[in-house]
Design goal:
The chain has about 300 residues and is mainly α. It contains 11 helices and 6 strands. The protein folds into 2 domains: about 100 residues, Winged helix-like DNA-binding domain superfamily/Winged helix DNA-binding domain (Arc Repressor Mutant, subunit A), CATH 1.10.10; about 150 residues, Tetratricopeptide repeat domain (Serine Threonine Protein Phosphatase 5, Tetratricopeptide repeat, Alpha Horseshoe), CATH 1.25.40.10. It has a 3-stranded antiparallel β-sheet with strand order 1-2-3, with no helix packed on it. The protein has a 3-stranded antiparallel β-sheet with strand order 4-6-5. This is DNA-binding SARP family transcriptional activator.
Length: about 300
């Protein structure tokens, strides 16, 4: 069994997928599953579905809960939706966390990040590929969702993009070069402010023997980041450009250090301690399901570690 949120909201049983009917019911299920088995207060669920809950919100929520139970019943999952009585009430989806694609995706992404930090590019590639295999489309595209809930979808979209970038990094370390260029260009077409992907493009061209292509990629990065978006290029990207001009193969092969955050805001917004092994930051805001370029320096202005051992 697998509850899917990464794309269409549906429930997969063996080889059969069952669609969840009604956008509000899909939004409700998403809000519950993102809490990974915790009870969710009624007030929080209402704020997840409506930016400004109407007077009828509590009544409507009960109706959506009833509809969700009705859809779960034929799959023998009705009892998985548990009601909390008293204290304002609440609900909980009592499922194994690993039966939710979001949880699997985050676990595999974290595994890949860890493997990359200890220079195990092959193992990182396997983890990232498995994580990306769970992704079926924009998160929450078919859900009723408030900005509060949609911001959590955005965090998952950002994590997805980061995993794609890290997969490129792993493959560069494994010696692949020009075959990665279409994937890098696809990332940059969606989000041209990702400096790490510009660095990947320069490295892929150079390590594939196309120095002119690498220099051209630098010129495009300068035009896009600096001239069009008004962002400052990092010292590391400038140094990479100089290394290419000097034909310094060793420096060009070195892992890129000025990464955007591996965890761009928790899917579950709970306090946590900073982890000094990974950079932290905030991804771009979005109002819809797709990522949009934004002229802000948040992605670029990250604390940079040294090249050695960066992942």
């Amino acid at each position: 069994m697998l509850f899917r949120l990464l794309g269409r909201v549906e429930i997969q049983m063996a080889d059969t997928s069952f669609a969840v009917e009604s956008a509000p019911v899909r939004g409700l299920l998403a809000a519950l599953l993102l809490e990974e088995g915790r009870f969710v207060p009624v007030d929080q669920l209402m704020r997840s579905l409506w930016d400004h809950p109407p007077d009828s919100a509590r009544k409507n929520l009960r109706l959506h809960v009833a509809r969700l139970r009705t859809q779960l019943a034929p799959l023998d999952l009705r009892e998985k939706l548990v009601t909390l009585r008293g204290g304002g009430g609440g609900y909980r989806m009592l499922v194994d966390p690993d039966d939710v694609d979001v949880v699997r995706f985050k676990r595999l992404a974290a595994q890949g990040f860890a493997e990359l930090r200890v220079q195990c590019a092959g193992s990182a590639e396997v983890a990232f590929m498995e994580a990306l295999g769970l992704w079926q489309g924009p998160v929450g595209q078919d859900c009723t969702a408030s900005e509060r809930l949609r911001s959590r979808f955005t965090a998952l979209e950002e994590l997805h993009l980061t995993v794609r970038e890290r997969l490129v990094e792993a493959r560069l370390r494994l010696g692949r070069t020009t075959e990665l260029i279409p994937e890098i260009l696809d990332i940059l077409a969606a989000v041209p402010f990702r400096e790490a992907s510009w660095a990947h493009l320069m490295r892929a061209y150079y390590l594939g023997g196309d120095v002119a292509g690498a220099v051209s990629a630098w010129n495009r990065a300068t035009a896009t980041l600096g001239d069009q978006l008004g962002l400052d290029l990092s010292a590391e990207l400038r140094e990479l450009h100089l290394s290419i001009l000097r034909r310094d193969d060793r420096a060009v092969r070195a892992p890129y250090a000025s990464w955007p955050a591996e965890h761009p805001g928790p899917v579950n917004p709970a306090p946590r301690q900073a982890d000094d092994r990974a950079e932290r930051g905030h991804g771009p805001a979005r109002g819809g399901a797709g990522l949009r370029p934004v002229p802000a320096g948040a992605v670029l202005r990250m604390p940079a570690a040294g090249r050695a051992g960066a992942g």
